[in-house]
Structure formats: structure tokens, C-alpha cells
Amino acid sequence: MPDYVPGLEGVVAAQTEISLVDGANGRLVYRGYVIADLAEEMSFEEVAHLFWFGHLPNRPELDGLAAELSGSRSLTQAAAAALDALPTDADPMDVLRSVVSVQGVRHRLEKPNIPAAIHVTASFPTILAAFHRRRQGLDPVKPRAELGHAANYLYMLTGTEADMDLVRALNTYLVLLADHGMNASTFTARVIASTDSDLASCLVGAIGALKGPAHGGAPSAVMDQLEQIGSAENAERWMREARARKERFMGFGHRVYRTYDPRAKILKAMCQRLNPKFYDLASRVEETALAILHEEHPERPQATNVEFYSAGVLQAIGLPKDLFPPTFAVARVAGWSAHVLEQASHNRLIRPQSEYIGPEPRKPVPLSERS
Amino acid sequence: MGPTEFSPGLEGVVAAKTAVSEVDGANGRLIYRGGYLIEDLVPAAGYEETAYLLWHGDLPDKSQLDALRGEMVGARRLNESARRTLESLGSDVDPMDMLRTVLSAQAASKTLTKPSIPEAVALTAVMPTIVAGAYRRRQRRDVIEPRDELGHAANLLWMMDGKEPATERIHWLDSYLVLLADHGLNASTFTARVIASTGSDLASCVVGAIGALKGPAHGGATYAARTMLDSIGSVENADAWLRDAHAKHARFPGFGHRVYRTYDPRAKILREMAKTADPKLHQVAAHTEEVALKILHDAHPERPNATNVDFWASVVLTGTGISKEMFTCLFATSRVAGWTAHVLEAMEDLRIIRPASVWIGPQPGQKPLPADKR
Fold it and tell me: Is the Cβ pair A357, B41 closer than 8 Å?
């Protein structure tokens, strides 16, 4: 039997042309384009088109996709009813998981397809905005067709049109987070797709994986830690004490990049501009964290990850902490659905092996004789 | 460590160490936690005992079993969110979609909790209520409340039909539930373990696993096997039907398995049960099996006998009176014990599952053109 590979690290589980995490060179590549060339130039809709159709859209294609997305923003009657049935204090990730599941119900099994991907991607902001308003005792805001994906999300959250700067910031965040190789949630979606299941099942599973603190839950944890540190002056002392207690620094460390995460670089610059208060504290914390981590492991690369400055950008946009993980999902659903389509197009059931570490076969004792 | 070669389907890759179950394909054995062979366990233990075994590592004594039964009975009812979510779904919705959705709603909670045995018990206990509720909803009939004095299998039949279930039906269903409760690192169990690896909650793992089980290449195969038997219809028709299907390169649902090199031990037990559960369908199925194996052997003499569990499960479930559209839900009702046991095991040494991929796209670095110049 081959050796057990913990975390499947280094095991190639898929061939993909959707995104490449080029860790050695610190590059994230979407279908051939380097992220730095896309992040502040492209709308989320253009990147979604790139993922689903394989190329950046020309003007009529982009207008067509934007219209399809904005025409698919409403929830089905069942989804709206389910959203109303969920407790108002529920974790928004649980709400997203449940309502996407309803939004995706069908009478019979449907093969994953692009229209379904468009339809479900369009609904994510609607679900989150409606839930966020409901838990504040507010009515949902109807989507506005002339607003883009990012602008409309903010509009549905607040009922007022957001500042252009913030819309651009959210759009850039969505582009940056839209895909990232074979991460755990994307891999989940592909495993589910490998059984010939439907798109909604893949996405619901991926949402469940993204919910984990080791994956999409990280930006909220960054915010918690920064709140505990409180001020730049306090950073060094707090962090050395935390280290002595064997606590982890949130927003640092990743398996793939050997250089500074290219997404973190862009988000950091955005934080400086949009959220100076956060930036002052966060950049000091980052500096201190990197210094301490370097002292401990000089051989390891700089480890600031995308979650660290994501927190500051999402805060600047006005999102509460518990909407950080599901807003990550708003971005990543474009990548998830593209990976599902890719998996379904040349599929093979993903069924690895396990190594049995239990006892050798023996006979069961009848109930009456067990003690 | 550099990336290895791409192994499609991760075939031959070891993704976990487990004591929950072992599929010993070479010897045609399925071993459940504690070292019990499936053929020894089915006559000795019911579903609740088997679930206890998978979660705790050994079979319960009488008082442990009574305590578990009490806990499960107490966790059978849908909460308000789940009940209203079920009611919001159309009666023509795929029952697996209903199960995926209602379980997600039942488990929606305020704070992230670490997977635990009590949560595994609660999720396992509520599955029959959702499955029966979905079945009743599809029939546009009222939901039937669970009955505390009935065991897991009996209560499921009660909630589906509203009639006192016959002893042998309870026995067939209970045996089916024991047989399907775990099976190594299959795609849905692996899904649950990948989700667990991020530190997510138990319900997210189970909801994801339900989505994977839904696929025709996994849990959907029992339904497909029964559909094939329906269209074959009679012993006389089997030969012509199968040869025709084979000529058209159609696959025979219920045949083929990646792991067993001998007859699937679960299929063997179910084949025996099918004789009494549905003698008429058993006849058609037995002949179908004989012809199918011959055709497959003629085409690939080097391959082993390939009847899988789905084939004979479809006959036993039919004899138990389960409507075929509910087969995959029944599979989930059983497998949830294994899914949750695997997640609990994975918690002991949590490490995010993040494999590598190979880039087969265009050379990185091309510059994007503005929209108007494309």
C-alpha cells in the first residue's frame, strides 16, 4: 500500500486551467492572467466570464452576462420562505448554506451548466443582504438591475447607493478572492462533482468547508486578534506574550507562497487608503509578527496571508465581522462553479484509499454477554 | 515535497488513516470498527448498536444501548426552522435536495461548535424524520410524528406510512441500515473529512456528504439498478435487454466496483435477504445478475465478479416497501453514522486537506485587453 499523505500535501488531485498558484514566484494566475493585472482593472463579472467561458468578455458578451446576472438576483419563493424560517441569530454561513441549498433544488438531477452557475452566483449577495436586514428588523431591499454585482450587494445591505470608492474596493476584493487553486472548499466542490451530483450540492458542500476557521473563517479571527491587541504601542508586548502562550498569529502562514502573497499586497495598499486606523494597527502588528516568526524560523518565507488585510478592507466597506466569511463565498462561488464545470467535463469519481489502523477481525459478543 | 503525478480520481492515494472501517478488497471483506466482519455483525447488532460501535469504538452493553436509544428518541423531532423549510419546498422537489436543505436548516446555529458525539447522535436521529417528511411531502400528505417506543428502523417505516410496520420489514430495513453504515473512504465520506479538515462543524460535513451521495456514480446507483430491473421486467426479457444495452455501450447499474476483487460481502447478504423480501423481483434480479456477469466476463475475462451492493439493495428495499425515489435518502440515513464517525476520528489530528493541481492552462503573463478592444 502507498504511504499515507497527511493533508494530501503535494498530491495532484486535478488538472486545471482555471487558476494557478505559482508559489515560488508569488503569482496568482487566472486562466493565464496575473492577478495584479486584473485586480483593479476588471469587474467581478468580467472575471466570472473569464472563469466560465474561458476568455475575457468583449463588450456585448459582458453586457449579456451582466444582464443575466442582474436578472437572476431574486430568490425563489421557497428560498425566501426558508430564509424567513431560519433563526435571526444564526451564523450567516449556516444561512447561506441552507438558502443556497433551497435556491438550487430541482425536480430531477441536472448536470452542472453555465446558466445554473450564473443563477446561483447572482443569488449569494441577495441571500446575505436579506438575512442581514432581517436580523436588524429591516425589510429586504429589492436589487437594482442597473447596479453591478459589487455595487448592488452594498445597496441591498444598506438601501442606499454606496460611495464609488467602496464599490471599487469590494469589487477588487471579489476579484482577488474569486479563485485560488485547489484549496479545501474548491476541492470539496470537485469531490462532490466527481459523483455526477448537481451544482448546488457542490456549492453547499464548499460553503460548509469555507466555514471552517482554518479556511474562510480566518479574517474574522484576524479582527478578533487586532481588537485584543488594541493599539500599535501594545502590539509587541501582547504578541510576545501570546507567543509564550503558544497562540497563533491570525492572518499569517500559508502552504503555497514562498514570497509575499500577491493578493495581500494589493489589499494592504487598499487598507492604507480606505482604513487608515486599521492600517496603523495592522501594519505594526504585521511587522512585529513577521519579526517574531522570522526569529523562530528564519528559513521560512514572509507569511502574511490574504486574510490579514482582507479584514481591514471588508471593515472599511462597512461589513460586520460575521459577514466576512460569507462575503468570501460571494467571491469564491465564481471559482467553485468553474471548477465544478471543469471537473464534470472530464470526470472520474474521486475515491482515495484509507489505511486501516483498527484491530484485526474478531467476533462480536451478543448484547446480553457484553459488559 | 514536490507535486507527484496526477492520479485521476486519487486512485491508489492514501488520504486518511482510519479505524472506522476497512474495505479489504482482496479478500472480499468489510470490517467495521472494533474488527467486526460485516457478516458477523448483521445478525448480532441492530443499527443503533452499529452506530454506537462506529462512534465509540466498541459495541454497547445493555445500559449503554438503552441510553443511546433514549438520546436518539429525544432528538428525532424537527425544530421550527427545519419544519418551515420543509414546508417551503415544492412537493415535486428531488428528495435528496429536501434532505440536504432541511438538515442544513435543522442545524443552523449561532456559534461554531466542534464536532462531538452528542451532535452525531442528534443528526443521525433526525435523518429518518426528514426522509419520511420529504416522502410525505412528495405525496402531498401530512407529516407523521415519530413514536418514542419504536426503534430507529421501525420508526422510519411508521413515519413514512403511518401504519404499524410488520416485523420482517423492520428486520430488512434494520439490516440494510447496518450494512450500509460505513465503507472506507468513499466519495461522500471523503467529502465529509475534507470539510472537517477546515475546522468546520459537523452539520456542514454531513450536508456536503449528502450532496456527494446524491451523485449517480455514488448513492444514486441503487435507484438506477432498480430502474434497470423495472425496464427488464421479467426473467425472459433479461438476456435480450442486457445484450442490447451492452451493444449500445450502456453500463449496467449495480455492477462494477473499484475495490472488491471478489463478490461484495454486503451484496451476498442482501441477495439472501432478497429471496424472502421480494421473491418475484429476486427471480428477475438473479437472472439479470447471471446474464450481466456473463456478458461482463466475456467482455473482460480478467475482471472479477462485479455485482455491487446497490444491485441487491434495490431488491431488498423494494421488498421492504420503500419507494425507489427514496432509495438514496435511505442510503444517507444509514451512512450518516459512518460520516459522523469519520469526522470525529479526523478531529483527533486535524490538518487541512489541500492537495495540489497541475496547471494545463495558457502560459502565465499575458496582458488583458480592455473590454472594448477584445
Answer: no
Question: Are residues B83 and B160 located together in one domain of the fold?
Answer: yes
Q: What angle do CA A110, B190, B345 make, to 5 degrees?
A: 145
**B167 Cβ neighbours under 8 A, 6+ residues apart:** none
Active-site position among A45, A286, A307, A342: A307
* Annotated catalytic residue, options A254, A286, A339, A342: A254
Nearest residue to A343 (alpha-carbon basis) of B85, B34, B187:
B187
Q: Where are the beta strands (DSSP E) in chain B?
A: 14-18, 21-24, 29-32, 36-37, 356-359
Q: Which residues pair with A354 in a beta bridge?
A: B16
* B312 to B183, B264, B270, B273: CA distances (angstroms): 16, 10, 6, 9
Residue B9 lies in a domain: no
Residues on chain A touching B1 (C-beta within 8 angstroms): 9-10
The pLDDT of residue B1 = 42
Longest dimension (CA), chain B: 76
Cross-chain CB nearest to A87 (options B36, B108, B218) = B108
- Per the annotation, the verdict on B310 as an active-site residue is yes
Q: Verify that B147 and B249 share a domain, yes or no.
A: no
Cell of B70: 433514549
Which residue of the set B92, B310, B342, B372 is catalytic? B310
**Cα–Cα–Cα angle for A32, A36, A39, rounded to 5 degrees:** 100
**Shared-domain flag, residues B146 and B89:** yes
Does residue B102 form part of some domain?
yes
Note whether B255 and B128 are same-domain residues.
Answer: no
Of B35, B187, B352, the CB nearest to A214: B352
When scoring B191, B258, B372 by the number of chain A Cβ atoms within 10 A, the one with the most, hence best to mutate, is: B191
Q: Alpha carbon B279 to chain centroid distance? A: 25
Q: Is the pLDDT of residue B304 over 90?
A: no
- A319 to each of A30, A177, A220, A227, B350, how far by Cα in Å? 27, 16, 11, 16, 30
Task: Tell me: ipTM over 0.85.
Answer: yes
Query: Which residue of B100, B187, B205 is in closest CB contact with A194?
Result: B187
Question: How many angstroms separate the CA atoms of A224 and A232, rounded?
Answer: 15
Interface residue A54 vs chain B (CB under 8 A): no
For all residues of chain B together, what is the average pLDDT? 95
Contact B110, B40 (CB under 8 A): no
Closest Cα of chain A to B247: distance in Å?
23
Q: How far is B276 from chain A (nearest CA, A)?
A: 25
The domains located in chain A, with CATH, are 19-212+322-345 (1.10.580.10), 218-316 (1.10.230.10)
A360 a catalytic residue:
no
CA of B347 vs chain A CAs: smallest distance (Å)? 13
Domain containing B258 equals: 221-319
Is B81–A46 a contact, with Cβ atoms under 8 angstroms apart? no
pLDDT tens digit sequence for A107-136:
999 999 999 999 999 999 999 999 999 999
β-partners of residue B37 are: B31
pLDDT digits (tens, 9 = 90+) for B187-240: 999 999 999 999 999 999 999 999 999 999 899 999 999 999 999 999 999 999
Q: What share of chain B is helix, strand, coil (3-state, %, to 5)?
A: 60, 5, 35
CATH of the domain at B269: 1.10.230.10
- Using CB atoms, pick whichever of B19, B21, B36 lies closest to residue A362: B36
CATH code, domain with B172: 1.10.580.10
Domain membership flag for residue B54: no
pLDDT at B336 over 50: yes
Q: Is residue B92 part of a domain?
A: yes
B92: nearest CA partner in chain A: A107
A369 Cβ under 8 Å from any chain B Cβ: no
Asked if pLDDT for residue B61 goes beyond 60, the answer is yes
Tell whether the model's pLDDT for residue A70 goes beyond 80: yes
The number of domains in chain B is 2
